[in-house]
Amino acid sequence: MLLLAVGAALSYDNPEDTSIWVLIVPMLLLAVNLISAIIS
Q: Residue 36 to residues 5, 8, 9, 25, 27: CA-CA distances in angstroms?
């Protein structure tokens, strides 16, 4: 969640310089974390 908040802050500060990947990557990490928690 912290990474997602940082990514959102960065995208708001530099909307033209920051790509959507800054938001997608933390969400992917969060999803992988959740899936691994469910599996284990």
A: 22, 25, 27, 16, 14
